[in-house]
């Protein structure tokens, strides 16, 4: 297909993802995307923000990412962001982007650390990005807090597997530098779907 064909394909993929999300359905098509997987405080947010060149993701202790964030990066001459649930509203202040992610997360999950598989769709237009679709997934956790269910670890693993089990999904497994790779939960999950670690796993 070549690079030109891929450039034409990405906007179509973005529209398909938006269409599925707008009717509350999971996108079960095998669309190319990069899923960022890691434990709590593994550094996933910093990795994603480096793709964008902006600080825009919520920070805090415990589980911060409580819904999947589908992040569509689109190369453009100007820089702004927009959410699928805020049609027509452009965000040029990335502190407001962070606040909107926090508010929309709480709207669905509550303010006491609950989780939900319903994604937030965010597009970032910028001259500093490549055309990519990335997915920020909740960090792997083992101990429930707040309103989280007792089986929080299994629920998060199931949520992650929904995305990374697709053959078109590239798995970006983020592990802290002070962690033995043999004990990396992210790599263990990735190897469940790609046992040889050759086709779809990238370690970071």
From TrEMBL:
Keyword set, alphabetical order: GTP-binding, Nucleotide-binding
Dynamin-type G domain mapped to chain residues: 28-204
SMART domains in the record: DYNc (SM00053)
Domain of life: Eukaryota
InterPro entries in alphabetical order: Dynamin (IPR022812), Dynamin_GTPase (IPR001401), Dynamin_GTPase_CS (IPR019762), Dynamin_N (IPR045063), G_DYNAMIN_dom (IPR030381), P-loop_NTPase (IPR027417)
Family: Belongs to the TRAFAC class dynamin-like GTPase superfamily. Dynamin/Fzo/YdjA family.
Protein name: Dynamin-2
């Amino acid at each position: 297909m070549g690079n030109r064909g891929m450039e034409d394909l990405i906007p179509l993929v973005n529209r398909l993802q938006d269409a599925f999300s707008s009717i509350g359905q999971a996108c079960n098509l095998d669309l190319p995307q990069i899923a960022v997987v890691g434990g709590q405080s593994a550094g996933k947010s910093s990795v994603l923000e480096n793709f964008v060149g902006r600080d825009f993701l919520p920070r805090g202790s415990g589980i911060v990412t409580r819904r999947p964030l589908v992040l569509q990066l689109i190369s453009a001459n100007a820089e702004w962001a927009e959410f699928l649930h805020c049609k027509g509203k452009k965000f040029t202040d990335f502190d407001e982007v962070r606040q909107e992610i926090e508010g929309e997360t709480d709207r669905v999950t509550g303010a006491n650390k609950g989780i939900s598989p319903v994604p937030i769709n965010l597009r970032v237009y910028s001259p500093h990005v490549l055309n990519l679709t990335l997915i920020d997934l909740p960090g792997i956790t083992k101990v429930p807090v707040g309103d989280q269910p007792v089986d929080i670890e299994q629920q998060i693993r199931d949520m992650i597997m929904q995305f990374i089990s697709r053959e078109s999904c590239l798995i970006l497994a983020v592990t802290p530098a002070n962690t033995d790779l043999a004990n990396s939960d992210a790599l263990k999950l990735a190897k469940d779907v790609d046992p040889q670690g050759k086709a779809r796993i990238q370690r970071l």
